[in-house]
Design brief:
The complex is a heterodimer of chains A (361) and B (326). With 361 residues, chain A is of the alpha/beta class. Helices cover 46% and strands 10% of the residues of chain A. Chain B is built from 12 helices and 14 strands. The chains are: A alpha/beta (361), B alpha/beta (326). At the A-B interface, helix 13 and helix 14 of A face helix 3 and helix 11 of B.
């Protein structure tokens, strides 16, 4: 019998759980230790931001919130590798990548606080990125469409989407990587495999040994990386983005990580997964290994850690205050963005609602 | 006898039917170990095993499509969409296959399936978790669109839905999932589909509604009674096929009709009822038909969400307008 196709999926890791280098060929960006400290700092601010969000939710100041605890390396790795002109189509918990691209914590709070203005990112480059996608996997097709637009217009830009292990089961994901392969699109799809889709474990999503290999069928470049190792994530991203920018096509990166928290604040993970597993997850968590590595290089220490933590706390307190001081939109806002110009019939409904509101007060 | 909530009634009906009919299978995201994100399927996997209560991959198209396949093979699948807002990817399978299988095969193949979804707003949920879009399904021939408004009706109607030989959309108003308890005997007694329930007799105005706003309509009827106005309240329960006779009889008696629903006004199911009232009861009407509905907008995030819902005050206002008109 002759073989029609054969494939392998490479697994990339530079730092082990303790922050020891497992290979010598560190990527070039790691030589800039100041930059590596910057990445660590952003991972930390992401974690502080996340803790604040959960505290806000627990005290009734935020609605349901999706935590990013444990995803800091994956998310910051994605965001930091992208260029400003690239476009990002996230799902609903990639704050680390978004903070890098200028999304303000107050905007995230606003969104989960029930206010659409949280989607109106003020800072570039986030301002040209997509807003969070709650319907699973749908954003992958938006990345493919964006990439198609870049190709048609001859722009050297890349569209990046992130998707969960669960979301990679959805037809939208397959459709997106398929057209990316067929059209040789500048697109990078990152599967952030945190092992759980709410209560459903990774093994129920797919019988394939890696999720990365789904891209093989679509003709994309595929790799699996340690998603808790920011060096690995960033390196894989960097390579994928460069290939895409050079017209060499799209990639699927599977970042293997672990969801350390509940799925959202509305979820109780103790119902469906054991303590041991979570403990093991903590042993591999992403902050410790980068911290150890930076400490070993002599560029980080406890004093710096505390000082930065205090700065993050101040930053987030400030953001929380800005959020809490934001007044609820007037009732008319429900109508004002449905169309570019409000149609006459809807205007009548708007006036009716406004009159009701006045009557109630 | 135990007092149970609407969601517990859903669980009770599923458990009853699974125990009495081996062909009933529950499938969806998180329905197994977790018992569903709202706990509607709580305990069922422990009782009936992993093959009859199946956690699926995260893909609604898969869930709906394999539901059709299983149903055609003689199983009675009960599929869950985690939230109403995530039922859209199921629509192709529901509209193109589940709804038409019987017709296009002249009855050779059929789809005795139930598609359940927590429906509607009012629980402070994130984006896409609060849609009221039953009207998208009432426009598809071959489906039954059913919405319970109390624990007893959830139990009885869900049993009927599972036993029904055709596909049923079963929309559960999550705002009232845990609002109150009611005694619901676990006797396997189904309620009839395709009939409206008259919840309160009245002579001056008919309030027609379904699902969660039944609560506001009953409150409005109380408020109207205090003003000496007698309101009849009809819970449509099965939207399609519609039992228009019950509505016609009531509107002919009262001469006034107020239709209340959460979904957007334009082409909402209220439009259908209003048109039928115009067609069949025009000469009995004493006032124009009124509709109290959501506006023609996307369900707002939760800060403004309640401003879009039909409130008791709006229903009372509308009823008073029909009285002032005659
Ligand atoms: C189309 C769709 N179906 C269901 C849901 C409800 N839901 C929200 S998150 C989630 C699990 C997602 O898991 P995964 O894709 O692995 O991403 P993770 O949350 O782990 O980051 C589900 C089922 C949804 N948002 N969209």
């Amino acid at each position: 019998m002759s073989i029609a196709a054969k494939f392998e999926i490479e697994y990339l890791q530079y730092l082990d759980a303790e922050g020891k280098q497992v290979r010598d060929d560190l990527p070039a960006f790691t030589q800039d230790l100041e930059y590596m400290v910057k990445l660590y700092k952003l991972m930390m601010s992401t974690r502080v931001f996340d803790a604040k969000s959960i505290a806000l939710q627990r005290t009734g100041k935020l609605g349901t919130y999706a935590s990013c605890l444990g995803h800091e390396a994956a998310h910051v790795g994605i965001g930091s590798a992208m260029k400003p002109e690239d476009v990002y189509a996230p799902s609903y918990r990639e704050y680390g990548a978004q903070l890098y691209r200028g999304v303000q914590p107050r905007e995230v709070y606003m969104y989960w606080g029930g206010d659409e203005r949280g989607n109106d990112y003020q800072n570039e480059p986030a301002r040209h990125d997509f807003a969070w996608s709650v319907p699973i996997a749908t954003q992958c097709l938006h990345a493919a469409g964006s990439a198609l637009a870049f190709k048609i217009r001859g722009e050297k830009r890349v569209a990046v989407c992130t998707i969960g292990d669960g979301g990679s089961s959805k037809g939208d994901f397959y459709g997106a990587i398929n057209i990316a392969g067929a059209q040789n699109l500048p697109m990078v799809a990152v599967i952030v495999n945190n092992q759980w889709a709410i209560s459903v474990p990774r093994k129920i999503q797919s019988g394939a040994p890696t999720l990365a290999q789904k891209g093989i069928a679509a003709g994309l470049y595929c790799i699996q990386v340690d998603g808790n190792d920011i060096i690995a994530v960033r390196k894989a991203m960097e390579d994928a983005l460069e290939r895409a920018r050079n017209g060499e096509g799209g990639s699927v990166i599977e970042a293997v990580t672990y969801r350390l928290g509940d799925h959202t604040t509305a979820d109780d993970a103790r119902r469906y997964r054991g303590e041991d597993e979570v403990k093991e997850g903590w042993a591999k968590e992403p902050m410790k290994r980068l911290r150890n590595w930076l400490v070993a290089k002599g560029v980080w220490d406890d004093a710096k850690e505390e000082a930065w933590k205090a700065e993050c706390d101040d930053w987030m307190d400030n953001e929380v205050n800005a959020y809490l001081e934001t007044k609820t939109q007037p009732i008319t806002a429900m109508f004002d963005y449905t169309y570019a110009e409000i149609p006459a019939d809807l205007e009548k409904q708007r006036e009716f609602a406004l009159a009701l509101e006045k009557k109630a007060h | 006898m135990a007092q149970i909530t609407l969601i517990e009634a859903v669980t009770q009906a599923l458990a009853y039917e699974m125990a009495h009919d081996d062909s009933v299978v529950v499938l969806g995201e998180d329905v197994g170990v977790n018992g569903g994100v709202f706990r509607a399927t709580q305990g069922l996997q422990q009782k009936f095993g992993e093959l009859r209560v199946l956690d699926t991959p995260l893909d609604e198209t898969t869930i709906a499509g394999v539901t059709v396949g299983m149903a055609v093979q003689g199983m009675k699948p009960v599929a869950e969409a985690q939230f109403e807002g995530f039922i859209y990817p199921m629509m192709e399978q529901i509209a193109c296959h589940a709804a038409r299988m019987r017709n296009r095969t002249r009855g050779r193949l059929t789809v005795p399936a139930v598609f359940r979804a927590p429906w509607g707003g009012g629980i402070h949920a994130p984006e896409h978790h609060s849609e009221a879009n039953e009207h998208l399904f009432t426009n598809i021939p071959g489906l039954r669109v059913v919405m319970p408004s109390s624990p007893a009706r959830a139990y009885g109607l869900l049993l009927a839905a599972i036993r029904d030989p055709d596909p049923v959309m079963f929309f559960e108003p999550k705002r009232i999932y845990r609002q109150y308890k009611e005694e619901v005997p676990d006797d396997g007694e189904a309620l009839p589909l395709d009939v409206c329930f008259v919840l309160r007799d009245g002579t001056d105005v008919t309030l027609v509604t379904w699902g969660a706003p039944v609560k506001e309509c009953l409150e409005a009827a109380d408020a109207l009674a205090e003003q000496g106005i007698s309101a009849e309240v009809i819970d449509v329960a099965t939207l399609t096929p519609l039992d228009f006779d019950t509505i016609a009889e009531s509107v002919s008696k009262t001469g006034r009709c107020v239709i209340v629903h959460e979904a957007p006004k334009t082409a909402g199911f209220g439009a259908e009822i209003a048109a039928r009232v115009a067609e069949e009861c025009l000469y009995e009407l004493l006032a124009p038909v009124e509709r109290v509905t959501g506006y023609d907008i996307h369900t707002p995030l939760y800060r403004l969400e309640m401003k879009q819902m039909p409130s008791t005050a709006r229903i009372v206002d509308a009823a008073l307008r029909t009285l002032a008109a005659s």
